[in-house]
Automatic annotation (TrEMBL):
Protein name as annotated: Beta-alanine-activating enzyme
Listed Pfam families: AMP-binding, Beta-prop_ACSF4
Database matches in SUPFAM superfamilies: Acetyl-CoA synthetase-like (SSF56801), Quinoprotein alcohol dehydrogenase-like (SSF50998)
Xref: InterPro entries: AMP-bd_C_sf, AMP-binding_CS, AMP-dep_synth/lig_dom, ANL_N_sf, Beta-ala_Activ/Resist, PQQ_b-propeller_rpt, PQQ_rpt_dom, Quinoprotein_ADH-like_sf
Annotated organism of origin: Pieris macdunnoughi
SMART domains: PQQ
UniProt cross-references to Gene3D superfamilies, sorted A to Z: 3.30.300.30, N-terminal domain of ligase-like, YVTN repeat-like/Quinoprotein amine dehydrogenase
Length: 963
């Protein structure tokens, strides 16, 4: 090839003149361009370059992906020997000064785009299709002697693993890749190849050239599955090369129903550029009848482009640790230089006699101009049974308080958690923090933290876990730890009071030790007797130092001595920090924390200040009760004799029973863990008095008499409980996070039987139907019915996302409705699980349970809250769901709406605003602001609303209608 890619391009145009070379999608329409058309454009651009005496050196191309890219690189090689793509958003001035271009071509898509470059006007401008090419002549000022005279292109490393380098890539370096990949991926002139990679990232040359040499089509289109895989398969893609990070940003539904569906046109998905963390997700989402072949590519820009390839058989690979580097591509060798003779791991080095690139820019102290015959990749490999596996980068292994920690190992463990989409683990050396970023459609940071603390050694526990919608990627589509480090905002030291320091210490102790307790419970114990280690002490004090530097540094040696109790450490610290004087003042204002404390306000606190006649509703706080910590659980009402009581659990571990009218506490049960489940109240035989049963985070289940809180029995099953129990025929049924339902004798607490429903957790409340079936949903998307008599699963179905909402019954328990997180609502028969109808109109995630209201015979309303800040009302008529109304509130709604009257509905937003809505129209007629957030579902009795709040209180709010 005497004139580089120009010769390749001309040869293809001669063989396949009428083949479609480029397809471009724009607003529902496709424009197509044949090879013969592009040949004409190439010659036209060449003529204009020749008129400017462009006959040597380097051509810079400032462009984004567009229809003339193949023509421009062919024309550049016809005129010069080397070209380099520049991103318009880059610091062009510094790159231009460094590379010393002979010519620069700037391709603009809009007429009003500026036509100057470094305050220079173009020497020539031409228009091709709807694109304007501005040509700048820099020959007189260019004296670049670094680059080699071969036909080549210059690529720049992304900088994700070190300082960016400019790499000159000769044709003979990348040509073996094109030959190998054409055969391996079976590329023919029939293929449609997605032009997905940014031009500045060297794998884009694979997409352009593998298309060109085979007479195939290159598709330019938005990265949306509906567009890439349309119903009309004429323009659907067959080959897609991308980074794992970009691919895993798609939703589970898009991957499952479009990309990996049985009808998908995609022959090959080639993932490369960074480690593949996500095998479990691929296995779950790829349909058994989908024929897409999966490949993992490995390589470095310094030996552009790919060094090895592995075809992935998902039936044989169980985890990310089992993804091999694969087979070497032509003219390339991979070796692992072992760290020790006895070690299976070492640094990965690439070697080639022919595939030699040149590093153009200088490194520190030396000038890298010689051709690279081998490349130290900076990666670590492990050899097992003759196969090389990627084990991260050498800079992935960091020193954390004297212990080596492998960041990639933590990422692999995180990806074992089923609901994680993508993740990245970042070490911030200055504040000494290990931070995990992850994206998920339904998983919370707390749930991931609980998962990791079961899977990882304490030296690997992250200091912070942050959930984001999508992890940011750099210009090359890779997750960049540098960008994530910049995202992290340090907590600025703030003035501390005695109380806030105690709260801060208690909070960090709970996180570090993964336990729940109060200050009174730990004040007389030392750090090690609580389960602490020297490593956890150092890690915890480091985090405390971010908020209160003196406090964190001061208490560390006292924690490590094992002689001082936590209260002694606290008092010594307060004295040293000269805060002991503030203690007395502060304690006078501190509310009593005794078990019998309650706060009742009968002074009638009106929220709306104007007269009753101008307000549709007045709200009056009848009383509030301080539980000591957040009340996320939903209160339960029960009546005994002539008295009404309300019972609820708290994150403090207290379960309280309060007189609903006066606010006076009747009794209290204490457990050692958070209580988020609602109390189930029961007064059926063989029980001799009204009883309550509830489960806690640590697996404790307690049964107690409601009238006086005398404990009947207590057991611990060892698995988290967030689900409300149910009762039938003398037995309680409790679901837990191990995916099992336990059948428990109501009188003794003895576990009679364990019914396995699913492998994943059950969070939704259990619902009893016809005194014969228990309905439930799980976090793995299973919906099921358990038959009480036989203690077996009557039927089981699979939904596409987790179920947090409790099932709801209607039409005399004939039908059950399940709401899954992705917004889909399903109706099935209770007895056999036969599908009746499905509603897909919700535009956000559903965590709220459903409220069902019968309107008349064969007509119901179903009302629920949604993460999109809306409350939805669906009509069910003749077994057909349709939207009746939806109302925008001020924040997501996780709480279940409920009825105030025949005509009014109450819904609580996460931000603590209670909204009263008209049941028929959804119009909001009144709002009431709680002091803090709420996830609790209100319980209503007469004109009283009972609800929990994150300011630690249970509220009784009286409402007065002025309608």
């Amino acid at each position: 090839m005497k004139r580089g890619y120009y010769d390749v391009f001309v040869r293809t145009c001669a063989i396949y003149p009428s083949n479609i070379a480029i397809r471009q999608y724009n607003n529902g329409y496709y424009s197509t361009y044949t090879y013969s058309e592009l040949y004409g454009i190439c010659e036209y651009i060449s003529q204009n370059l020749q008129q400017l005496n462009c006959t040597k050196g380097i051509v810079g191309l400032i462009s984004e992906r567009n229809i003339i890219v193949p023509c421009v690189i062919a024309a550049a090689h016809k005129s010069c020997t080397t070209f380099m793509f520049l991103d318009p958003s880059q610091d062009l001035e510094s790159i231009i000064n460094e590379i010393k271009f002979n010519f620069i071509i700037s391709i603009k898509t809009k007429e009003n785009d500026p036509d100057t470059l470094l305050n220079r006007r173009p020497d020539k401008s031409i228009v091709v299709f709807n694109l304007t090419l501005h040509i700048f002549n820099f020959q007189l000022s260019s004296t670049n002697s670094h680059y080699g005279p071969e036909y080549s292109f210059i690529a720049m490393t992304s900088g994700s693993t070190g300082d960016p380098k400019h790499i000159q890539v000769p044709i003979q370096c990348i040509q073996p890749n094109l030959d190998d990949l054409t055969k391996l991926f079976d590329i023919t002139q029939e293929d449609v190849i997605y032009f997905s990679t940014p031009l500045t990232f060297d794998p884009s040359m694979i997409e352009i050239l593998i298309t060109c040499i085979n007479g195939a089509s290159l598709l330019i289109a938005p990265e949306k599955p509906d567009i890439l895989f349309p119903g009309n398969t004429q323009n659907a893609i067959t080959f897609w090369q991308t980074t794992p990070s970009k691919f895993f940003q798609f939703s589970n539904a898009d991957i499952k129903n479009k990309i990996f569906s049985p009808q998908s046109t995609l022959k090959v998905l080639a993932l490369g550029g960074e480690p593949l963390n996500g095998i479990i997700r691929l296995k779950e989402l790829k349909h058994a009848q989908n024929k897409t072949k999966l490949f993992m590519l490995y390589g470095v820009t310094e030996m552009s482009c790919w060094a090895s390839v592995a075809e992935l058989d998902l039936t044989k690979i169980i985890s990310d640790l089992e993804v091999p580097l694969g087979n070497c591509l032509s003219e390339t060798d991979i070796i692992v230089e072992r760290f020790k003779e006895t070690s299976d791991t070492g640094k990965i080095v690439l070697m080639s006699k022919t595939r030699k690139c040149v590093v153009l820019n200088k490194s520190i102290g030396t000038e890298e101009q010689s051709s690279l015959k081998f490349v130290d990749t900076g990666d670590i490999g492990e050899i097992r049974n003759g196969t090389i596996y990627y084990r991260g980068r050498r800079d992935d292994v960091i020193k954390r308080f004297g212990h080596k920690v492998n960041l990639q190992h933590i990422e692999i463990v995180i990806m074992q958690c089923p609901r994680v989409k993508t993740c990245s683990c970042v070490w911030l050396p200055k504040p000494f923090l290990l931070v995990v970023y992850f994206s998920s459609e339904s998983l919370t940071s707390q749930e991931l933290s609980d998962f990791l603390k079961c899977k990882l050694d304490d030296k690997q526990w992250p200091d912070k876990i942050i959930r984001v919608d999508n992890l940011p990627t750099n210009a090359h589509g890779k997750i960049s730890r540098q960008m994530l480090a910049q995202m992290f905002e340090k907590v600025l030291p703030i003035p501390q009071s005695v109380n806030s320091l105690k709260v801060l210490l208690l909070k960090e102790l709970k996180v570090s030790l993964n336990k729940t307790f109060t200050y009174d419970e730990i004040k007389d114990k030392d750090f090690f007797s609580l389960g602490g280690t020297s490593f956890l002490a150092i890690s915890m004090c480091n985090k405390l130092s971010l908020t209160c530097p003196e406090f964190g540094k001061f208490i560390l040696p006292y924690l490590l001595t094992q002689k001082s109790t936590m209260d002694q450490v606290m008092q010594i610290a307060l004295k040293e920090l000269h805060m002991e004087n503030k203690t007395k003042k502060r304690l006078k204002r501190t509310r009593s924390t005794s078990e019998s404390h309650f706060s009742a306000s009968h002074s009638v606190k009106k929220i709306m200040e104007s007269s009753p006649s101008s307000n549709p509703v007045d709200f009056i706080v009848a009383w509030s009760f301080d539980t000591g910590k957040c009340v996320d659980a939903s209160p339960t009402l029960f009546q005994h004799g002539y008295k009404l009581y309300v019972t609820v659990g708290s994150h403090s571990g207290k379960i309280v029973v309060v007189d609903a009218i006066s606010g006076l506490m009747q009794g209290l049960i204490k457990v050692k863990s958070r209580v988020e489940a609602s109390v189930y109240c029961c007064n059926e035989a063989p029980l001799t008095a009204p009883c309550g049963i509830v489960g806690a985070h640590d697996g404790t289940i307690v049964c107690f008499k409601l009238e006086n809180c005398i404990e009947i029995w207590r057991i611990n099953i060892g698995f988290m409980i967030k689900s409300k129990a149910t009762f039938c025929k003398g037995q309680f049924y409790v679901a837990a996070y191990d995916g099992n339902i336990r059948c428990i004798d109501a009188m003794t607490g003895k576990i009679i039987l364990t019914i396995n429903v699913a492998e994943q957790a059950i969070s939704a409340d259990l619902v009893l139907a016809k005194k014969e079936f228990i309905l439930l949903g799980t976090l793995s998307g299973v919906c099921a019915s358990t038959h009480i008599e036989t203690k077996t699963i009557a039927w089981r179905g699979t939904l596409s996302s987790p179920v947090f909402a409790a099932p709801v019954l209607y039409d005399n328990d004939k039908y059950v409705i399940f709401a899954e997180v992705n917004g889909e609502i399903h109706c099935r028969t209770v007895e056999k699980g036969i599908k009746i109808w499905k509603y897909q109109g919700a535009k956000g995630n559903i965590f709220s349970s459903l409220f069902v209201k019968e309107i008349d015979k064969l007509r119901w309303q179903i009302i629920f809250g949604c993460h999109d800040n809306k409350v939805y009302c669906i009509n069910i008529k003749n077994f057909q769901p349709s939207l009746n109304w939806k109302t925008q509130l001020s924040s997501p709604v996780y709480s279940t709406p409920c009825s105030l009257s025949d005509k009014l509905i109450i819904a609580a937003s996460n931000n603590g605003i209670l909204s009263i809505l008209e049941a028929e129209t959804g119009i909001v007629i009144a709002d009431y602001q709680l002091p803090n957030e709420t996830f609790s579902t209100p319980a209503v009795y007469g004109d009283y609303i009972f609800i929990g709040c994150r300011n630690d209180n249970l509220y009784a709010i009286k409402y007065v209608l002025n309608l």
